[in-house]
Amino acid sequence: MRPAPRLIALVLCCGALTVLLALAVGDPAIPVLVMWSALLLIVMIDALASIAPRAIIVEVSLPKSGMVGVAAPYTVTLKRKTGAVLPAKLSLRFDLDAALGDGVVADLACARPSYAIKDHVPLLKRGLHKVRALHLKWPSRWGLLEVLSRTLLSHDITVVPDVTAVMSGQIQAQMLPLLEGQKDMRLKGSGSEFHQLRDFAPGMDARQIDWKRSARLNALVARETRAEKNHHILLALDCGYLMNERIAGLPKLDRAINAALGLGWAAGLGGDHVGLYAFDNRPRQFLPPQPGRAGFAQLRAAAAGLNYTDHETNHTLGLSHLLTRLRRRCLIIVFSDFVDSITAELLVENVSLLTRHHLVLFVALRDPALNRIANPTDFGLNSIAASVSAGQILHERQAVMERLSQLGVLCLDVAPEALTTALVSKYIDIKARELI
Q1: Per CATH, which fold does 164-174+229-432 belong to?
Q2: Start-end ranges of CATH 3.40.50.410 in the chain?
Q3: Which residues are bridge partners to 413 per DSSP?
Q4: Terminus of the chain with fewer CB atoms < 10 Å: N or C?
Q5: CA distance 29 to 36
Q6: Dihedral, CA atoms, 104, 105, 111, 113, nearest 10 degrees?
Q7: Which CATH superfamily is domain 54-160 in?
Q8: Are the CB atoms for 434 and 384 separated by under 8 Å?
Q9: Category of 103 on φ-ψ map: left (φ > 0), alpha (ψ -120 to 50) or beta
Q10: Residues of CATH 2.60.40.10 domain(s) within the chain?
Q11: What are 228-265's pLDDT values in tens digits?
Q12: Bridge-partner residues for 278, per DSSP?
């Protein structure tokens, strides 16, 4: 137990009254002793009349795992051993890692024998996180004390990358134009892999006519092609400190991993091989390209094990090392970011080296807060100064993207919530145009 604000106010009042009695009465010992003894007696009676922590049974049901950015459900059941009602006011708070939120649950009015609280724990970072205890707090019978109860839990929650788009079928629906047996890519000028022969019909491209077979069959026959499969795709993830910045509540690294896994599943459906490469101030992890559908579990496990680091990214070492690990032409998707001209210059220089032998797609996350700051609704001096700075950052960012495009690098700069969809759409476009 601990003193409540009401008891603290009474103690201050008694202290002030003690000072007044000492000034007004020559020997205030007896009235002061009576006053403080009465206050102590009242506090003791209040403590004995209150509900003891051992009288409340606590049952907690917490998830063992969850996906980053997706709140995990939990249930807390409270009831009295004797069947009496719970305290009229009750506060609950979990003692947990910062990656699971601030820990505050709710303030409840519980005038009943039992209560079941169902809510969600926010999962803000990947990894193994602990829920150490559940703290309960309720006022004493007369509100002079706060009764505290602590229930040890020692529960672990494993937070993994978010694959909701994969499990919901969203990516599979987006990939329908490329799926075998659904609708093959037959766009004009796309596809280099032979699919089948069919009778030539008016309106078809004359370049599709197979003249040798047409002469043999004495009828016009057209060749149908589809997008080539078995390409190698490498997901290059920057794990430096810039990727730890939070956008819309989640680190950039986690949003990049979620989108990368979505693309890995899409590439598996498209018949391609997908690999993973992580780097910060030095190369960290390399997973060779594997058949996407069969190797997706291994790809997800490798992505889940990527750590958050405070190191500055060394693009020169990271990307040059990647160049030595690849033996055939790949689609390299680089997830990275920059904030200053020096970082951007090194990034552009090293990404351009990859374009000599590979197709490179550079992916950056656009911060919605910058657009809000650059277009303020309040025209005060501080808002205008912040708007000018944000506008300058956006201008420099656009200049870097244009320079990368001039060097033959495909660029994707989108908001966090649209990253997975935009990335899969870009992959479909690359497959349709046979750019790899």
Answers
A1: Rossmann fold (3.40.50)
A2: 164-174+229-432
A3: 364
A4: N
A5: 11
A6: -120
A7: Immunoglobulins (2.60.40.10)
A8: no
A9: left
A10: 54-160
A11: 668 889 999 999 888 888 888 888 999 999 999 999 99
A12: 237, 285
